[in-house]
Design a protein that fits this description.
The protein has 20 helices and two strands. It is mainly alpha-helical and 393 residues long. Strand 1 and strand 2 form a beta hairpin.
Length: 393
C-alpha cells in the first residue's frame, strides 16, 4: 500500500475512533491488537493486514469499506464462510477423532462469540464459529458426567452465535439446522434455563416462515415448561420468553396476547437487573425497547404508541449494540408510516452508527431506506449514499 494510502487509512481510523470517544488503548483492546499496531497504523507508518483491518473495523462498529475504499464488504466475507459453518455441524452426531481442548479454554473463546453477537460483530463470529463448533462437538463426544453437561451448554452457546450470522445474512436453511442443533444440545444439558434460551431462539424459524400464530403457541408451551421464576436466572429466562411472545403476537395481530405477555415481561423485568442471561439480554430496558417493536408490528392504529415511547425514552448505551440499533430501526419504520421521512432517516443513521453490520443486513432498515428515498424524491448525497450502502437502490 503506498505511503499516501497508508496515511489516509490511518486518518480514517483515527477520525472514527475519536467520534466513538475511544482512546488508542481502547481501540487496541477492543480489536485484540497491540497498542503499537494501532499507533503505527494511525500515523501511516504501517499498513493493516486484512485480519487486522477486520478487527479494527469491528471494534469501531463500521464496515471495512468505511476505512479502506474498495475493501471486501462484510456480507461477502460472511457468505464465503457460511459453507464452513455448515460443514462443521454436518456430522454433529458422529464422534470425531479429535482431542478436545480444556473446557475452561473453550468456554473463554465461546464467551467471545457471545460478546460479538450482542455487539452485532457478525464477521468476527463467522470467522471463528466453524472451529469452535467443531471443538464443542469434540468436547461433547469425548467427555462424560458433569463435564459432558458443560460441553453441551458450550455447544448450545456456540450454535446460537453461529445462527445469528446465518439468520441475519439470509441463510435460513442453515439457521434452522443450527437452531435444531442448539435445541438438541440444550436438552442434553438437563438445564431448563438453557432449554428456555433455545426456545427463545427457535422463534426465528417461525419469523422466517411467517408462521406467527404457530410460533406464539410454541413460545407459550415453552413458558409453561420453563422453570418457576424463583431466582434471577429463572426469572430472566421466563421474562425473555414473555418478551419474545409479545413480539410474535404483534406480528400475528393478536393485541390481547400482546398485552398479556408484555404485562408479564414488565413484571418479571422489574425483578432483575438489566443484563445478558445465558446470552439473552433481559431487564426493564429491554422490555421497553421491545414495546416499540410490538407497537410497530400491530400496525397503524398503534404507531403513536411507538412514537410516544421514543419521545420520552431511548436505549441507554449499556444495552448491547444489536438491541440499540434494533430500536432505532423499528422507530424508523414507525416514522416512515407516520409520514416523518426526515426523522426516519435520522433514526437509520443512528442505527448505523451504533451497529453498522446489523443495520445493513436488517430487511426493515433496507425497506425504510428505500421508502424514504422514494418519498423524498431527493438526490441528496447523504441519502443516496446511505441507500446505496444498505442495498436499497
Amino acid at each position: 500500500m503506498p505511503i499516501a494510502s497508508r496515511r489516509d487509512v490511518g486518518q480514517h481510523i483515527a477520525t472514527i475512533r475519536r467520534a466513538r470517544r475511544m482512546t488508542q488503548a481502547d481501540l487496541a483492546r477492543a480489536a485484540y491488537v497491540s497498542l503499537a499496531t494501532v499507533k503505527g497504523i494511525e500515523r501511516g507508518a504501517r499498513s493493516p493486514s486484512d485480519d487486522t483491518l477486520d478487527s479494527i473495523a469491528a471494534a469501531l462498529n463500521v464496515d471495512p469499506s468505511r476505512i479502506v475504499v474498495g475493501s471486501t464488504r462484510t456480507d461477502s466475507r460472511v457468505h464465503a464462510v457460511l459453507p464452513n459453518i455448515s460443514a462443521a455441524i454436518a456430522t454433529y452426531d458422529i464422534v470425531a477423532d479429535t482431542t478436545p481442548r480444556p473446557l475452561d479454554e473453550l468456554r473463554e473463546d465461546i464467551g467471545k462469540l457471545v460478546q460479538w453477537r450482542l455487539a452485532a460483530q457478525y464477521a468476527r463470529i463467522a470467522e471463528h464459529a466453524p472451529h469452535l463448533l467443531t471443538e464443542s462437538l469434540a468436547a461433547l463426544h469425548h467427555t462424560g458426567g458433569a463435564e459432558q453437561l458443560r460441553s453441551a451448554h458450550l455447544l448450545a452457546t456456540a450454535a446460537r452465535s453461529a445462527d445469528a450470522v446465518a439468520y441475519k445474512f439470509g441463510a435460513l436453511d442453515l439457521s434452522a439446522r443450527l437452531v435444531e442443533l442448539m435445541r438438541w444440545a440444550a436438552d442434553l444439558t438437563e438445564d431448563r434455563v438453557v432449554q428456555a434460551s433455545a426456545a427463545y431462539v427457535r422463534t426465528e424459524t417461525f419469523f422466517a416462515a411467517r408462521a406467527h400464530a404457530q410460533g406464539l403457541r410454541a413460545l407459550e408451551q415453552a413458558i409453561d415448561a420453563s422453570p418457576y421464576p424463583l431466582g434471577t436466572a429463572s426469572t430472566a429466562a421466563r421474562g425473555a420468553l414473555h418478551m419474545r411472545a409479545a413480539v410474535i403476537a404483534g406480528r400475528s395481530g393478536d393485541a390481547d396476547a400482546v398485552a398479556l405477555h408484555l404485562d408479564e415481561a414488565r413484571m418479571l423485568g422489574d425483578k432483575v437487573p438489566e443484563a445478558a442471561y445465558d446470552g439473552t439480554q433481559f431487564g426493564p430496558e429491554s422490555v421497553r425497547a421491545h414495546e416499540v417493536s410490538v407497537a410497530v408490528s400491530l400496525g397503524q392504529e398503534h404507531l403513536q404508541r411507538a412514537l410516544d415511547i421514543a419521545d420520552e425514552w431511548t436505549p441507554p448505551d449499556s444495552l448491547p449494540e444489536e438491541r440499540q440499533s434494533g430500536f432505532w430501526i423499528e422507530l424508523a419504520r414507525a416514522q416512515v408510516w407516520a409520514g416523518r421521512a426526515d426523522d426516519a432517516f435520522e433514526s437509520l443513521k443512528v442505527a448505523r452508527f451504533i451497529a453498522s453490520q446489523h443495520t445493513r443486513e436488517h430487511p426493515w432498515a433496507r425497506e425504510a431506506a428505500s421508502t424514504i428515498r422514494r418519498l423524498k424524491r431527493a438526490d441528496a448525497e447523504s441519502l443516496t449514499s446511505f441507500a446505496e450502502w444498505i442495498g436499497a437502490v
